[in-house]
Design a protein that fits this description.
Elements: E1 2-6, H1 13-17, E2 28-31, E3 34-42, E4 48-57, E5 60-65, H2 75-85, H3 93-99, H4 106-111, H5 122-132, H6 137-151, E6 154-156, E7 159-160, H7 165-169, H8 173-178, H9 186-198, H10 213-221, H11 228-236, H12 248-258, H13 266-273, H14 280-289
The chain binds a DNA duplex (15 and 15 nucleotides) through helix 6 and helix 11.
Length: about 300
DNA sequence: GCGTCCAGGTCTACC
DNA sequence: GGTAGACCTGGACGC
């Protein structure tokens, strides 16, 4: 089954797929030499699907739903998931208007950069974000792969969905430590999942929250295992760009770009991007990753 | 092949 | 409010 979806004129699938590392973590996957994003999904209705997204025309996406790898009849649900992951319902015209004021950032509007790929659920984004903390990218990939393979639903050979909060909540801390390789993050993942299942935590409401960002930031950092770095990046995937989310890679990259490799404090970096206002987190990220598209993606 | 060391973000205890 | 140490793993390195 093939679905079509019209997209805003400023949308660029290539830029969104490679906006950060999510496209190389399951249940997302990409293909070498093709601008194509695939995903295995367990839909809110319970159906499982596998689909691939391409952009044959500037204002049109094609979604190829593989009928052999899951039920293909969930048309509206699939479209809703794709729109959410690719940030198609969000308006970036204000961001591009601001970016045009800065010669250093005029390229963002010209290339359609800015939409950061996200998962259909905040839960998946949050779990993955915790799995990026205090470890190498290689270990993040191992943890997320294990989560999908051992707790997700199998769709086809080597294709699994991301586990639901319920699926994570029913395993033990020892399982998460040893089988998923989450190590000391295991109690964080377990508490997060169990709080969702018990109804103590409604992460999904963060995407539609009208709370001021600092208030939401406090709520996000209130979840065990989510500190300043993870919270800032989760907020970016919600559409709030007030915080930078500086990690060791960002510090190094900033230092290389602007300080001849000298050590820099986070305060210096924050001051550097402060005048970009509510969009500073997005300017910060696009600035540090601009070279990816000219050289090679690091994930 | 084995042992040691280091990097990485967050939490907790302590000052 | 700031700081030190623990947490855990993979990878780099030396032997």
């Amino acid at each position: 089954m093939k679905l079509s979806l019209s997209v805003p004129a400023d949308f660029n699938l290539h830029r969104t797929i490679y906006s950060h590392g999510w496209s190389s973590l399951p249940p997302f996957s990409t293909e070498k030499n093709r601008i194509l994003l695939s995903r295995a999904d367990e839909l809110p209705s319970g159906g499982v699907v596998f689909y691939s997204i391409s952009q044959p025309k500037k204002k049109l996406l094609t979604i190829d739903v593989d009928a052999k790898k899951g039920a293909a009849e969930h048309r509206s649900e699939i479209l809703r998931q794709v729109k959410s992951c690719l940030r198609l319902d969000e308006d970036y015209s204000e961001f591009y208007r601001v970016s045009k004021k800065y010669p250093h950032f005029r390229w963002t509007a010209k290339t359609g950069a800015g939409r950061l790929l996200r998962a259909p659920s905040v839960f998946e984004d949050a779990v993955k974000m915790i799995c990026t903390t205090n470890c190498s990218w290689a270990l993040t990939k191992i943890m997320v792969n294990n989560l999908c393979r051992k707790l997700g639903k199998k769709i086809a050979a080597d294709i699994y969905t991301f586990p639901s909060p319920k699926a994570v909540a029913r395993v033990t801390e020892a399982f998460l430590r040893k089988e998923i390789k989450a190590g000391y993050r295991a109690p964080y993942l377990l508490e997060l999942s169990r709080r969702i299942v018990n109804g103590d935590l409604d992460m999904e409401s963060w995407r539609i929250s009208t709370k001021p960002t600092p208030e939401l930031y406090d709520e996000v950092t209130g979840v065990k295992g989510i500190g300043p770095y993870a919270a800032a990046n989760i907020l970016k995937l919600i559409g709030r760009y007030d915080y930078l989310g500086i990690d060791s890679w960002c510090r190094k990259q900033f230092s290389t770009m602007y300080k001849d490799g000298r050590k820099v404090s986070d305060r210096t970096i924050e001051k550097f991007y402060n005048h970009y206002g509510a969009w500073r987190g997005l300017f910060f990220w696009l600035d540090l990753t601009k070279h990816w598209y000219e050289k090679e993606y690091p994930f």
